[in-house]
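fyi for ur records
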Amino acid sequence: MNEANYPIRFGDMNELNTMGTELLRMTSADDQVRVLLEECDEDRKKWMTFRDSDPSLFRSYITGVGSAPLKGKWLEIDDEGNPALSVDVEGIPARDAKGVGLLLEPDFILPTLNIEISAS
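which gave:
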């Protein structure tokens, strides 16, 4: 990566820098979110995906800006990210006549993981 002048540095073969440590933390969080999905109750397993997890675990490496929560369940939002009123038999989100979706309660977010990884 250094020889190719890649603009981001994660450390070297001996040690991760702060950005490398953050990459490792978010990669671990991503893996653990997927494992937590297997522990959900059967009703949540029908609709929940890794995208429905707690967004506070993730942020941009470049800007540090955190991820924003979805406005609804991943499988029930439209292309603009707005919640749909329902999903038809083909799994396509349906909207009311005004194009307004249903605002969902945020109780479907997976629990926050406490992950600490430090640079050497």
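Confidence is low (pLDDT under 50) at residues 95-110. thats all i got for now
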